[in-house]
Amino acid sequence: MRPDRPTQWGAADPAPGAGADPAQCFAPSPASSAGAEAPGRIRHRFPACPMAVRDLLERAAANPALAHRFDDRAELVLAEALNNVVEHACAHRPDAMIEVTLEWRAAALTCRIVDEGAEMPGGLPGVTDTPRAEDLPEGGFGWCLIHALACDLRYTRARNRNCLEFTIPAAP
Amino acid sequence: MKLESKTRGEVMMVSIAEQRLDAAVTVDFKDAMRGLLNGAPARIVLDMSRVRFLDSSGLGAIISVRKSLDQTQELELAELTPAVEKVFHLTRMDTLFPIHASTQSAWEPRSRAS
């Protein structure tokens, strides 16, 4: 059964698009930071800081379960999405945690990011123009890159948590 | 953030001795570049050959360095790895910089049309 309503992270709720088990999301784990790993899937929970994001990306790239599927597109989109969480949603929350689940399903890498930070104001940003080079922009590229490379973007907010899901299709 | 610089004539080659230019190191990168740019010649070439990963924060930092130059100076890039080249291409910021296929060719004098 999969009720068609906004994602919740209660024990009785079905997995959102990424197919991860939401019952375990942020559930106490014996190895709190090591992450749960199954064949083709990794889950990792870490503090909202740039070095922890880098560590997660390096772990994912090196994980044999995702070998060759966590390519440079996946690394970039995940980095941009996680940078947003660290710099905006969790900007004043150094104690906040992020949980990332990556899974290879149906010829695509599905990614789910859950964080305890502030709600995304205005919801998921739509596709916008790339900043103009002649303006010498120092930012505003993050969502452009995400929209350019990711598919099936979905943002939900429930129980004081943000959930961003997307897929990276198999390389053409 | 480890940077190695070498100056020959009008070119200062700055090699980024890191695999990642990302949000974790952009402040360090900008600070380190600021130190090197003091008294730098007209052409500053960033050797990107060792940078395997660049995110939008790193891209913003490179543009910030470009903005900090005086009018007689230019920032150029050399040896972009495939993932880094993709970021410049997708954001169209590759139009902002002369890009050299190799560091060797970057040392050669540029013919300026002006």
Automatic annotation (TrEMBL), chain B:
<protein>
    <recommendedName>
        <fullName>Anti-sigma factor antagonist</fullName>
    </recommendedName>
</protein>
<dbReference type="InterPro" id="IPR003658">
    <property type="entry name" value="Anti-sigma_ant"/>
</dbReference>
<feature type="domain" description="STAS">
    <location>
        <begin position="21"/>
        <end position="110"/>
    </location>
</feature>
<comment type="similarity">
    <text>Belongs to the anti-sigma-factor antagonist family.</text>
</comment>
<dbReference type="InterPro" id="IPR002645">
    <property type="entry name" value="STAS_dom"/>
</dbReference>
<dbReference type="Pfam" id="PF01740">
    <property type="entry name" value="STAS"/>
</dbReference>
<dbReference type="GO" id="GO:0043856">
    <property type="term" value="F:anti-sigma factor antagonist activity"/>
</dbReference>
<dbReference type="InterPro" id="IPR036513">
    <property type="entry name" value="STAS_dom_sf"/>
</dbReference>
